[in-house]
Specification:
This protein is an alpha+beta fold. The chain contains 29 helices and 31 strands. It has a 9-stranded mixed sheet with strand order 9-8-7-10-13-15-14-16-17, sandwiched between helices. α5 runs antiparallel to α9. The radius of gyration is 32 Å and the shape is globular.
């Protein structure tokens, strides 16, 4: 009875919806399951291959004893409804609009009526007929993810990630315990090389298992393969060369026990049936993280370490206004394609646009011809092809996702407009960051690729964060080239570990268009300063705080992009007009030969040594007792130090203000200012600061010494230093110091430029003295620190109590929680336009349709997800959380408006628009 009932239900649903189900799909384990569970019949939206975000309806024959277990699975799985057939009864389980699981019995004879009833909209699979020409784009699939889907998706990713990591680590463990292995041609390989082979095979087996669970080998293949060698043999004839390379070049190096480790973790015990093209990129990224550092050369070039995360690549393409280019002109080129993340994102972005061909064959040809790649490495496209194959199979054949028809292997330095073979209008790239002598490769790369582009072309580059601030290695010239010849839409700053597998530096991502308008347009800046470990940027594209900056081509100044500007309404004076700044000594290579000692050798000149690491970050006094007793003295002189600062030798012995030059901005005190009272000799990672009057008149040549401020001259040198110490240790000056500095420190020029209040509030001196006395007496500090609070308050008053946008520099950014809270909320579409930007760039006057307000426009703080191209007044569409009805509510929840989209077809002429709309002339 149950079997007959099953076939009847499946056929009835197929006829009602005119969509064929997927049969015997192995769904990843629910919370109470230990193994994947096969589902008899599964319908997805648009009939696509199953994923965690498109499951609509399932039918399952269930024994009465298993009924409660299947109900729990329906609560855990991201599916809208299911029909459970048990003892001849049809039990319909479905999720209501409030997210609650409901159930009711359905009479067999009324099943067709039930599935076609108006109330069935809750679970009816979405049909292709709902879309123009019956064709899907990727944009049609990018819908809000429900809380249940997101929870399942994150759990699935974590479980698959663990399985993959266990497979790799288990295999690497086998390498570590083997005494002897037999290798091809009797050659001996290092353990690192064997590990490389193991990781290549792991990636290939993972990819083959994804293809298998996605139905790549046909519907008759429902039992997963637990033999990596057998599955790769089956895959090689039907897929690209990466599988062949793994099978022929790498498997011979692996023992049966290693292959068994892979099979045990990636075989039938897991299901890849619901992964999508984004999950594939994340899994690949995890694998190449495990590559040994000592394998290199052409043999391993298919495994790229210079990897751009999928989420970052997609955000780069998403925030370029490709709609401004005609469809036939939209050729997107990555000259340093590597493993293809930016190419995949480019294909995905184009596939989601509404003005490309609708016919499936023409669409496939268009996408293949309008994305192009290049990489000098002959094997670079193997993994790219692999990733395209997996993306295509995860989406299904109804969504064209072809590999680029143009992928060359040239040195980009030799490419010109004439020999490039295509006419790119968009360049996206993650170029090499290495330095060639005194030139940064990324700088020469930008100069090169801009020469290929004509007016109105667009670009998105991943660069070292130092590109925004550096004054050497050819970078200032390229910044000037960009500000004078381009409009910069956006600049992002992402923390180390965001881009690249072994990334140890922060990055900046620059989006723009060639051609500078007569009107200087502001740019959007986004940044995460905190170094707290979080995968949300790398995995999900969270970009942190947003503000508006203004680039100046005349000054070549990108300072307002590196940190939010603080507009001061009171008179200020540069630090360089009042103080002399000089570096501590540099031990260098001589410091290794003559390291610091506990006692000064007889007959040798020594100084009391000081390092920033010995400073207590909670105190302002440089406590000599914190010096390592074995490093108390440093031998002083040209024969002992690489840079002994002979010209400032007498100044080193004076009490002075010390500031850390190499302090990461992602700290609570980015200047690390403290006071040396006994004449310590700091190393070159610190700046020493003295009043000009105490430094024998020495001062920066860029600043004239201040001689006409009578209030200043009434202070003693000690009072001047204590006044400065109080200011430098304040919160507001810590934020002022972020302007124009790199992520890893501050330069002497920026210190000289730092604005100080042009008035003396003696309370700053008094409170700072109290703090120093407390520190010298080693009195415990209680939280909150009332003295520091008062000091902050007085210093802020000296600067006029300016309003400012603060970026949290430590811990998890508070914006992350707000961003996450809006991701899963139902949305509706609104149209809007930026009408005006306030003079201080802190607010926008926004027109927005769709709200319940009586007014249609209002001044608001900058919206965190707004794209840079929208600042010029371009009309946009966006998604707004359904429970936001007024401008006041939007001001409270600015992350509620997201997924901004450019007005389609802005390139149409008046005549073309008339024809498009069918208006008779």
């Amino acid at each position: 009875m149950a079997g007959k009932g099953l076939n009847y239900v499946i056929e009835t649903a197929r006829q009602v919806w005119n969509i064929d189900p997927h049969r015997d799909v192995r769904i990843p384990p629910a919370l109470q399951d230990s193994q994947p569970v096969a589902v008899d019949a599964l319908w997805t939206d648009y009939g696509l291959r199953p994923s965690a975000t498109n499951l609509a309806f399932m039918v399952q024959s269930v024994a009465p004893s298993d009924l409660e277990q299947w109900k729990r699975r329906l609560r855990d799985w991201p599916i809208r409804a299911g029909l459970l057939i048990s003892d001849g009864e049809y039990l319909l389980e479905y999720i209501d609009p409030l997210g609650r699981l409901k159930e009711r019995l359905v009479e067999p004879d009324s099943l067709a009526v039930e599935l076609a009833a108006p109330s069935s909209y809750l679970f009816t699979p979405k049909a292709l007929a709902e879309f123009r020409g019956g064709q899907l784009t990727l944009a049609d699939l990018e819908e809000s993810v429900s809380k249940n889907s997101l929870s399942f998706l994150l759990r699935q990713r974590a479980e698959l990630d663990k399985a993959f990591q266990d497979a790799i680590k288990g295999t690497l463990a086998e390498i570590g315990i083997q005494d002897k292995l037999t290798y091809p041609q009797n050659s001996i390989s290092s353990r690192g090389e064997i590990a490389g082979h193991a990781i290549r095979v792991a990636i290939a087996f993972l990819a083959a298992r994804i293809l298998e669970d996605k139905g790549f080998f046909g519907s008759d293949s429902n039992i997963p393969t637990d033999d990596p060698r057998a599955l790769l043999n089956r895959t090689v004839p039907r897929a690209n060369g990466f599988f062949k390379k793994a099978l022929e070049d790498s498997i011979p190096y692996l023992s049966d026990r290693m292959l068994q480790r892979l099979a045990a973790n990636l075989g039938s015990r897991v299901s890849f049936a619901l992964v999508d093209h984004k999950d594939v990129g994340l899994l690949y990224e995890r694998a190449i993280k495990e590559l040994p550092n000592d394998i290199e050369g052409e043999e391993w070039s298919d495994l790229q370490r210079h990897y751009t995360p999928v989420a970052i690549a997609e955000r780069m393409l998403e925030l370029l206004p490709l709609e401004r280019l005609r469809p036939e002109e939209r050729v997107i080129f990555d000259p340093a394609a590597g493993s293809g993340s930016l190419l995949l994102a480019a294909t995905s972005r184009l596939a989601g646009m509404s003005d490309i061909p609708e016919d499936i064959k023409e669409r496939r040809l268009y996408l293949a011809q309008h994305v192009a790649g290049n990489d000098l490495d002959q094997y670079a496209d193997l993994v790219t092809q692999l990733r395209y194959t997996l993306a295509r199979e995860s989406l299904g054949q109804d969504v064209p996702f072809p590999f680029p028809s143009h992928f060359s292997h040239e040195d980009y330095k030799n490419l010109t407009k004439e020999n490039i073979g295509i006419k790119p209008r968009v360049i996206v790239a993650n170029p090499p960051f290495a330095e060639d002598g005194n030139t940064q490769r990324a700088a020469t790369f930008i100069e090169k690729v801009l020469s290929w582009l004509e007016e109105d072309s667009q670009f998105a580059f991943i660069l070292p964060q130092s590109f925004l601030t550096a004054s050497t290695h050819g970078i200032p010239n390229v910044r000037r080239l960009l500000t004078e010849n381009c409009r910069i839409f956006e600049v992002w700053q992402c923390p180390e570990g965001t881009v690249g597998i072994e990334a140890s530096q922060d990055v900046a991502i620059v989006l723009g268009t060639v051609g500078n308008s007569r009107i200087t347009m502001p740019s959007i800046a986004r940044a995460i300063f905190s170094r707290a470990k979080s995968s949300d940027t790398r995995d999900n594209g969270f970009l942190g705080k947003t503000w508006i900056g203004q680039l100046s081509s005349e000054l070549n100044d990108w300072g307002s992009i590196t940190a939010p500007s603080i507009n001061l309404s009171v008179p200020t004076i540069p630090l360089g007009r009042l103080f002399y700044v000089f570096n501590g000594v540099k031990p260098g290579y001589l410091g290794r030969q003559y390291p610091p000692v506990d006692k000064c050798p007889e007959g040798i000149k020594c100084k009391l040594y000081w390092r920033l690491a010995w400073h207590d970050k909670n105190r302002l006094w440089a406590d000599p007792q914190r010096v390592d007793k074995n490093k108390r003295y440093i031998r002083y002189g040209k024969q002992y130090l690489h840079t002994p600062c002979i010209n400032n030798e007498n100044l080193l012995d004076l009490p002075k203000v010390l500031v850390g030059s190499d302090v990461n901005r992602g700290t609570s005190n980015p200047l690390a200012a403290h006071f040396d009272t006994i004449g310590l000799c700091p190393n070159n990672h610190m700046f020493c600061i003295l009043p000009i009057t105490e430094s024998s008149g020495k001062h920066s040549k860029k600043y004239s010494s201040c001689k006409d401020w009578s209030e200043w001259e009434t202070l003693s040198c000690e009072e001047q230093k204590i006044w400065l110490l109080g200011i430098l240790s304040s919160t507001i000056v810590g934020e002022l110091s972020l302007q124009g500095r790199s992520s890893r420190g501050i330069t002497k020029d920026l210190l000289y430029k730092l604005p100080l209040p042009y008035n003396i509030d003696n309370r700053i001196i008094q409170i700072t003295r109290q703090i120093l006395e407390r520190d010298k007496n080693r009195i415990p500090i209680f939280k909150p620190d009332e003295l520091h609070r008062r000091l902050d308050e007085v210093v802020e008053g000296s600067y006029g109590n300016p309003s400012r946008l603060e970026i949290v520099r430590t811990g998890i950014p508070p914006e992350l929680g707000l961003w996450k809270s809006e991701r899963t909320k139902p949305t509706f579409t609104v149209r809007g336009q930026v009408l005006e930007i306030s003079e201080d760039n802190s607010q926008i006057r926004l027109y927005l349709s769709g709200l319940m307000d009586d007014v249609r426009e209002e001044w608001l703080p900058i919206l965190p997800e707004i794209p840079g191209w929208a600042l010029d007044g371009t009309v946009f569409e966006a998604e707004l959380s359904e429970d936001v009805e007024t401008f006041a509510e939007l001001q409270e929840r600015p992350w509620a408006i997201k997924r901004f989209r450019h007005t389609p077809r802005p390139y149409l002429t008046d005549e073309e628009l008339t024809e498009e709309l069918g208006i008779e002339t």
